[in-house]
Each structure stands twice: as C-alpha cells, then as structure tokens.
Fold these 3 entries.
Entry 1:
Amino acid sequence: MASKSAIRRLNKEYKAIAQSPPPYICAKPLENNILEWHYVLRGPQETPYEGGEYHGVLKFPGEYPFKPPAIQMITPSGRFQTNTNICTTMSNFHPNLWNPTWSVATILNGLLSFMVEDETTTGGIRMTDRDRRILAGKSHNFNLDNSKFKEIFPELCTPQAAPLPDNVPKPQVPASTTSVPNLPAPQNIGAKVQFFTPHAQLRNRPLVTKVAPATGTEEPEAAVVPSPRRSRWFSFEPYYKLYVILVIFLYLIAAKLISRAASTPV
C-alpha cells in the first residue's frame, strides 16, 4: 500500500513529466495503481537502438521516495532480459546507494544512459549491434501486439513509430553504473578494513590491517603482518590473569614451606 508521502511525491512527478517530458522518454502511472508506472524509451540516434521503442515498467515500493523501485523492460532490446528486474544504482538491487531526491525522470534517464553502454549487469544480455538494430526495427510492432501497451499509450499506437525531432539532445552517459552525480561514494570503498584473530577480538586489537580495493588508481597498502613472537603472546592474552594468580599462589605456598622449614629445630 502506498504511503501518503509516496502518493504525494508520485503525483507531483507525474505532473512534472506531463508538463515537460524528458528527451526520449514517456512515462505515466496506472490509473488504479500509482505505484506502477509504465515507460517508453526511444532509441537515441547513432546507437544500435535508433528507431527503437522500448516499453517497460517501474514498480515503486510503498515507502517511496525512501526506497528505490524495481525496473523491468518488456520490449526485447538485445540489452536487457524481458520481464526481469534490472540491476542499476537506481533500482532495488542497491537500496544503500539510493538517493531520495532522485525522481522518475532521473531513474529513466539513468536507465537510458546505461542502456547505450555495454556494461554487464544482472538482467542484462549481450548481443551484436546488428541484432539490436533488428530488434529496434521490430519493437514498435511488438508493442502494438501488447494489450497493456495499447491501453496505457494509445497515443503511440500509430502504424509507424513517430520519428524523433531533429533537435533532441543525446543522453548523457555516466562513466559507470555506480558513478552517479550527487551520490557520495560508499564508505567502505578505499577505507581500511581490520581483520582480527579470535583472541585479539576480545581485546579489540587488530593484528592485520589491509586496504580495501579503491575505484581509482590508488594502490592498496600492503598488509601489516604481525611477528610470530607477537602472535604467540596474543594467543595467551585471554588467560594472562589466570597465569599471574597461579604464579602468586605457588609463590605463597613455597614461601610458607620455606618458613616452616626454617622454624623447625634441627
């Protein structure tokens, strides 16, 4: 069930998209379910998807905008599996990377940018550019055979796909699926990761410190390996109090025996 904030936010976004549609993108929610949006991406010029018309769905959680949607594509594209959740930084595969300020337009722009890349992802497939162009040419007729598409997008149900305007800008392609503008890098990237032995954990003393692989050109630091002597000493650490008590106890017994021996007449 959609929360009040989700309903208010999605209604606001639908109004914004209707007034100023993003290039290559058409999107709208179902009349009876604000959490299910259907979209159509137009293939950009000078890509294997040029002339294509790709129908898909966004399934928003009731907690939106605080949780990301699931993203699927219905029309065969040669880039994504059909009716399968697609892994991007703006999908439910990465809730830790989600930014609540992102909108439906942001999500679909990101998906379109990712589509024209060849980066491997869950839900993605690899095909030749020739096969993708063939699918692009068949996409409009494929959509016309889909009753859901005809119900939601009657304005697109023409004998031929409408040509793109000449002044449509090319989509901005991010460097990768994880390099999204205005998104702070994950805190564990490039951060020091501490590894503990079971005994050292008890005293919270790291024995080995390594650097997690970073996304840039920075080289990871070499591991600091403890000396054998230090390792042996820390392996006894949890019991050192017991050893001290035992030594003191033995010392007291020995002292008492010596005292008795000294006081016994010869």
Entry 2:
Amino acid sequence: MRNNSRFAHVQTFDIDRVAAAAGADPDVLRMENLDTDVPPPPNAVTATAQALATGQGNSWLPFNGLPVLREAIAADLRERTGHDYDPARQIVVTSSGTAAVMPVLLATTEPGQRVVLTDPTYAGLLQRVRLADARPYLVPLRVDGGMWRLDRDALAQVTEAAAIIMMSPSMPAGVVLTHEDWTAVAEACERLDAYLIYDAAMERIVFDGHPRINPCRVDGLAARTIVIGSVSKEYRMIGWRIGWVAGPADILSRVLTAVTYNTTVASGFAQIGAAVALSEPSGVAEAVAEYQARHEAVVRQLDGLPLVRAAGGWACLVDAEELGIGARELSDRLLSHGRIAATPMTAWGEEVARRYVRLVYSNEPVKRLNELRDRFTAALP
C-alpha cells in the first residue's frame, strides 16, 4: 500500500488514548477531555427539541446555513467586533468550529505555504494545517510571572506566511492576548500580506483582570481577519456541532464551496437551537464564573508545583519536565497512581508543548478538584 505524504507528520490527539485507559471508573478525575458538566442553555435545548418534533430544519438547504442562524451570528459579531457582516455573503455555517478550519485553510493557502501558530496550540489546528498540505511555523508562548505570554519578538522574525492562526483564550494554554499582542499580529499580517484566522471559540471565557479584545477592533486587522466561531464552548453545546466562519466575501465564497463539497450542510435541528442560544440569555457569565472557580481550585491545590496559570478557557498546563519526568510518563503515572486522566501535549506543538500535561477543569466540580494535590502526590516519582 502506498504512503500518503499528507499524513506523514500528523499526530493523534492522545485524548482518546487516555480516555480509553481511564474507562468508566467514577473515581477517576476526568481532566483529559474538553467536555463540561455545566449544562447548555435550557432555551436552546427546548428550541432544538421543538425543531425535532416539528421537522424544522430537516433539509439539505440552504448550504450556507439557515437564515435565522446567520442573522443571529451577524448580530453577535456586530457586538463583538464592531463591524457589520452580510449574513448572505460573509457568513457560512459549518458542522462545528473545528470543521470550519480545513475549509478556511483551503481557501487561504496554497500547498507548501507557511501558516503561523503558537507553541503550544490546539492540536486540531496544527494537524489540520498539515492535512491541508501547508507548513506549520510555530511561534512560542513563554512563561512570564507564572502566566503565558506571546513571544512577540519571535513573531516579528517571521519572514513569510500565508496565514496566522490565533486563539484567545487559547487551547491548551489559556493565554489571553493583550492589545499589544494583537498589534504585533496586525503588523505581522501587514508585513507578510497574510490572513489572520481567528479561532474565537472561547472569546468570552476570560477570567477577572484579563483583557477581552476582539482582533477586528485593532487597527489594520478587520479586513484581514477570518473569524471561526461555535456554540461548543461558550454555550456548552458540544453535541450540537454547530460553528461558523465570517470574513471577507471573496474568501467566504471559497469557504462555502469547500464546506458544501465536504459536509453539504450542518444539522438543521441544531442550527435552530444555536440561533436561540445566540439570541437569548444563555448563562455565559455564570458558566465563566464557575470555570474560574475551578481554575482557582486547581491553582490552590498545585501550589508549589510548576503549573502555569490560565487567563481564561477550560484548562491549564503543568510542566512535566520541571518535575523531572516526561509528559507521557507523567500522564501515565497520574492515571495509574493518582486516578487522574490528563493528556500529554506531545501533539500540540513542538519544543514548548511537549514538556506539558493538560489539566481540564470544565468537567469536574470544585469539590472533586480539591482532591487534586493528594492525587498528584501519589503519582509523582
């Protein structure tokens, strides 16, 4: 059987491996996967159920998404970005935010062109760059004062790229980009004539004291920015698998072609629920407060260990090598000795990422997280 070069450097998430090893043991702290026990908006659940009962959305059309959802996305983007997006020409609904990444890469890059990401970054972004036959170029995140910071000097040294992919808050590190960071991104995009692909999946999951800045509000970025959003994180609607792309009309026409010939159309039932989540109160602030409380519980429990605080998001990272052990071995020991399922970041970047193990706190309440120190102590060599 012939090899396929697109898959030569693609790595697995490792999430499923850790989850399978953990099994269904209720004693295990489930910190390997981005599920959440914070419920989705009840109004969205009701709207979805009603759509199922009445047959609304049970159609192949329209390929770019139901008008009610595209209009809700446009209204949400107007509030976030300060810009108006034409629901008919500048917004395409996709089967989740992650499913939007490949069509956007196909629309913005040629084979062999460079795409800039951070190290660490979400493995679903990094590996899709490889599958799109583009070349990832990783700019490191650095730990400064116990928090992650973008290495702006390293970004300024990039000499060529077709696109820059950024996420704020990011997965898996939880870095929140400052206005100075976004200005550096804008300068890089202008210098390189590159698009900014902005994964906004967690934009509002930001903790107290940290900025929440949409890049489209930064001078020079709006015209170059392609926004990828979804209802999975902010609205806790993981199983709906609804996302979207918004941006310049010429790029969105290409995105729509790629989406249509891949998935044809996202679930109509789920689109109706997503439209309600975007249009009505959906408990985002309350959910963020709960995630922040869980993050602080993790920080308290692991005080004195090489944990890097997150400024937002659903997870934070612990430096396995600082503990004198490899990330894969620490992940294995946490499960076998501490009953903690946690994913090594070996597929989530390069030199920086491979040092770390991710601790997801979105699916474990504070009461259970308060057992974390004892479990870690049992796991460390």
Entry 3:
Amino acid sequence: MRLGAARFVAGETLKEAIEQVRLLNNDGLVVTLDHLGEFVFDEHEAFASTQACLDVLDAIHASGVKSNMSLKMTSLGLDLSKELCMKHMRMILDKARELDNFVRIDMEDYAHIDVTMEIFDELKREYGKHVGLVIQAYLYRTVDDMKRLETEFESMNLRLVKGAYLESPKVAYPDMADVNKNYLKIIEMHLLSGHYSAVASHDDMVINWTKEFVKKHNIPNEQFEFQMLYGVRPETQRELVREGYTMRVYVPYGNDWYGYFSRRIAERPANALFIIKNMFRK
C-alpha cells in the first residue's frame, strides 16, 4: 500500500506538497491541492481540518505557485452539524476571497448530496467566483441539478466526474455504459451553457471527444480545462499542455494517505484495479 501511495500522494506535509506543485507548474500544469481527511468525529478534529485548509491557502499565496484547493465538507464537521460546517466553510472562503483564490467543494456519497447542495447554494451567493462544486455523472438526478445551477447562477464552475462511490441502483446508473453516456451528456450541456467546465477524466475517449466537441462548437480553451489525478498518466498530462489546453492536476497530501486509499477501495473495489492499471500507464 505504501509503495502505491507514494506515486499518488504528494507527501505527508504541506511543504512537500508545495514542492511538488512547483515542479508541476514548471511543466505548465496547474494544480488543485487536497489535504486528505474526511468523516471527523468531534469539533476539535473539524477545526484542525479547517486550519489545514487555511494553511494551504496561505502557503499557495506565500509560495506563488499556481494552485487552488479542494475539500470534503465531512472533514469540516458536516456530520456533526450543518451550522458547524458552515462556520468553517466561511472561514476558509473568507481567506480564499482575501487571497483571490478558489475552493472546490467535493461531492461525497449520496447521503450527503442534499445538504451539500444547500450549503453550496448559500455559499455561492456569498462568495461568487471563489467557490465551485463537483458533479457526478452516475447519479440519475445530475442533469436536473445542473439545469438548476446553470439557471440560478450567472457563473458556475463545475468539475464534471463520472463518480467513484458505490451507490444503490435506485439513485445511480449501475451500468458503466449508461454512466459514460450521461457523462458526455453533462460535458456537452455545461460547455454549451457558457459556464466554465472542468472535465475530470483519464479516459482517452472522453478527452478526444471533448477536443472534437469544442472545435466543432468554437468553444474557446479559456472556457474549460482537463483534470487528472496526481501520478496518473503524467505524460498524457504534459502532452495536453503542449497542445495548448489547461491541464489541472489534483494533488492530495497528508498523513491520512492510508485512510484515503483504504476508503476509496472499500467504497468501490474497481478503484483498486484503476490504481494498479495506472501504475503502468503513460
């Protein structure tokens, strides 16, 4: 596990992570830093996670690297109370606004989606361009959620993913062919809406389809970016930069690397196969 994690996690300390971000920036890549952690069980842990996020924003600003930040609201006390999570989110977004940076709220499992949407709506109205959201293609509700967000807000920066949690067929497409079809549908929908799209995929089919779609519809490169995980297909990431696309790397770091890997594999065993396959891909 440790050998595998070393490729996909940029160290245990923020200093190590910033060094890796600088190296990625040198190759033309931009970054999203993600301090590992979720599902805290008391207010002390939730505040510690909040402070770690504030430290990330300060370190990005002080170092001058090109990076924003993502977070999971369960790490900020969402399961303890919505009010506690909101308090911590406002602390983080106050800092992001002060430093003119951006925070991406990760979407978690289906049990958290309604409260995540409620919090995001409120924070989006307060903090505007400084906050964005992740949208998962494998959920039946996704298209309706996107239509509402695109209509209610003047600008909507969404990270579009297939989804990595193991969900009930009552709420999510069980067949990967249907997930892929819906994924292309929401990419098309968001690109045509004029909002900013982050296409997060390691799938050549998705990447090539997106390239052809934006050319066909004269969508400027400034309106979208590709995203991949740290350590996954690094040569392909750099090739996309050479082709003139914005390529953002999601860089996790922290001492919860073991929990991070264990939870991802427990949630969906196919994630283990994904990790193993990508240890040998370019």
